[in-house]
């Protein structure tokens, strides 16, 4: 019965009701089915909402980024990249992927982030590289490049950070095994994270290379049509 | 301690509450009162979260959800700079524009690495439990002062510009916190054990290969439901990995941990429940489809999930 909440979430996301409503409904339903009182459930909403305020910390970057955008930061990032002949969308994103993943593996997870790096710098640079080559981009291509920029930040962070010993994930796993009386060693966990970390870098770099090729093909074809 | 995470929340709260005042006064916004109220209440929960009794915070949260649900949250007008204005500013400032933007990561890293154990008097300079977040908060504050000095803008302009960005994110700003709430309720209601039992009933327990498959895919799927690999790991590992992989087949716990957690991260890349990685960035980058980031990530996630399964199976076979 408690799985009703899971069901509500899945159905809600499939039929695309506003996620905020879906999540609230799922929380209320699950709580009521587990025989909690409405007061308790609302109290849990309040407690969890307050303890998870750290998730809102990205708001701290908005005043700076907002001012800089007003003064042309995005355009400046685009124009810098447009001057570099060898720059392509895929290469810029690959470079950022490498930096992000290497930094995370060294424990520097706070280099990067969507609010502080992707929106003001990485996405405009990736767009600028494509614009310099192909001219004005249609909206769906622009969105695709932006989505790829966000994805690179996630993938670099996720698959880099577990290579670092003192990261939360490793400590959590160590703690779990200790509680269950199973011998484990953070150093070995971090070591065994390396193959997947390398695979992530290779797999995603290949996909970014293919993004370049598909952009090239897309605009080549459209230009070809234009000439006919 | 001199700088706690609470100070960062107060900074956030001030930015959001002040921004809401412009929303209340924004005549171009057809729903300016409900929209303004939404951001005002959100700011209040950031500012006073630790003082307001949890039940009342819960009520405020439900009011915000109700505003979103009844279509009371609308975009307004933001008097953005025209492309021509931006060009003029850009010609004057050029590459200096990058300085404040790059100050944020640089100062954050400096804070995390060097100021972690610094004490002034008897107290830590930074909240030792939240060094990264406090560093980030302080770094953005310094970067803000530098950018205001450089562009000769007022704090009001900073608030107005952050209001423009925050309102483009809209309700998605609340989602990560709400999903975390759902996670807590799921945990207390015993959703984890129910899922783990379900998986345990389906898989054939004599085949190492199928257990590895079930554990890795289970980690990914349960992470997709909970939005968080950290929540999935104890449940799936206690349910499948400890009794079957580690105790029955003698697999090294370190392999299980590294590859299992990464399988969970593959799930994180594929779910709207991981809102601050997938939905908030989509809103932040003005993408029309809020699932666009997820769509782009799915191929990489599936390939790496297959890699993790293969790696765990092969490594285990070699050890046996």
Automatic annotation (TrEMBL), chain A:
Keywords: Membrane, Transmembrane, Transmembrane helix. The chain crosses the membrane at residues 7-34, 54-73, 155-177, 189-208. Pfam families: DUF969. InterPro entries: DUF969. This is Membrane protein. It comes from Geobacillus thermopakistaniensis (strain MAS1). The lineage of its organism: Bacteria, Bacillati, Bacillota, Bacilli, Bacillales.
TrEMBL record, chain B:
The chain crosses the membrane at residues 6-24, 36-52, 58-76, 97-115, 131-150, 171-195, 207-225, 232-250, 262-284, 296-315. Keywords: Membrane, Transmembrane, Transmembrane helix. It holds the Pfam family DUF979. This is Permease. It comes from the Bacteria. The lineage of its organism: Bacteria, Bacillati, Bacillota, Bacilli, Bacillales.
């Amino acid at each position: 019965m408690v799985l009703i909440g899971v069901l509500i979430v899945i159905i809600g996301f499939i039929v695309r009701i506003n996620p905020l409503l879906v999540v609230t409904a799922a929380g209320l339903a699950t709580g009521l089915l587990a025989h909690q009182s409405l007061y308790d459930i609302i109290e849990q909403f309040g407690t969890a909402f307050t303890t998870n305020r750290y998730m809102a910390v990205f708001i701290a970057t908005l005043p700076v980024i907002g001012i800089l955008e007003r003064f042309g930061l995005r355009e400046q990032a685009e124009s810098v990249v447009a001057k570099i002949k060898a720059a392509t969308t895929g290469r810029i994103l690959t470079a950022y992927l490498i930096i992000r993943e290497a930094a995370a593996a060294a424990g520097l997870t706070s280099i990067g982030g969507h609010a502080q790096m992707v929106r003001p710098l990485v996405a405009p640079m990736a767009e600028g590289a494509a614009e310099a080559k192909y001219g004005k981009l249609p909206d769906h291509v622009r969105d695709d490049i932006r989505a790829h920029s966000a994805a690179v930040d996630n993938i670099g962070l996720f698959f880099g950070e577990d290579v670092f010993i003192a990261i939360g994930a490793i400590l959590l796993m160590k703690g779990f095994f200790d509680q269950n009386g199973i011998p484990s060693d953070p150093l070995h966990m971090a070591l065994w994270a390396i193959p997947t970390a390398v695979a992530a870098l290779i797999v995603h770099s290949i996909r970014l290379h293919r993004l370049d090729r598909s952009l090239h093909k897309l605009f080549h074809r459209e230009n070809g049509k234009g000439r006919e | 301690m001199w700088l706690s995470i609470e100070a960062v929340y107060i900074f956030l709260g001030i930015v959001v509450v002040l921004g809401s005042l412009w929303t209340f006064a924004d005549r171009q916004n057809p729903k300016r009162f409900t929209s303004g109220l939404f951001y005002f209440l959100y700011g209040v929960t950031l500012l006073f979260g630790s003082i307001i009794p949890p039940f009342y915070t819960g009520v405020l949260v439900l009011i915000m959800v109700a505003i979103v649900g009844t279509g009371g949250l609308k975009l307004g007008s933001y008097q953005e700079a025209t492309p021509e204005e931006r060009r003029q500013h850009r010609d004057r400032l050029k590459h200096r524009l990058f300085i404040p933007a790059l100050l944020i990561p640089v100062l954050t890293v400096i804070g995390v690495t060097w100021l972690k154990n610094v004490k002034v008097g008897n107290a830590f300079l930074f909240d030792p439990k939240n060094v990264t977040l406090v560093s980030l908060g302080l770094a953005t504050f310094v970067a803000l002062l530098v950018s205001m000095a450089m562009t000769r803008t007022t704090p009001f302009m900073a608030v107005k510009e952050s209001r423009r960005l925050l309102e483009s994110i809209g309700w998605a700003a609340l989602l990560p916190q709400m999903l975390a709430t759902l996670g807590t309720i799921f945990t207390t209601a015993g959703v984890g054990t129910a899922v783990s039992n379900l998986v345990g009933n389906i898989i054939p327990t004599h085949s190492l290969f199928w257990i590895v498959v079930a554990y890795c895919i289970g980690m990914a799927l349960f992470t997709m439901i909970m939005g968080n690999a950290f929540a999935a790991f104890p449940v799936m590992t206690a349910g499948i990995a400890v009794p079957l992989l580690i105790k029955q087949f003698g697999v090294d716990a370190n392999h299980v941990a590294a590859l299992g957690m990464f399988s969970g991260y593959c799930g994180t890349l594929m779910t709207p429940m991981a809102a601050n990685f997938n939905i908030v960035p989509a809103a932040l980058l003005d993408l029309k489809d809020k699932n666009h980031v997820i769509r782009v990530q799915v191929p990489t996630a599936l390939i790496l999930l297959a890699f993790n399964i293969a790696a765990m199976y092969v490594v285990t076979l070699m050890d046996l």
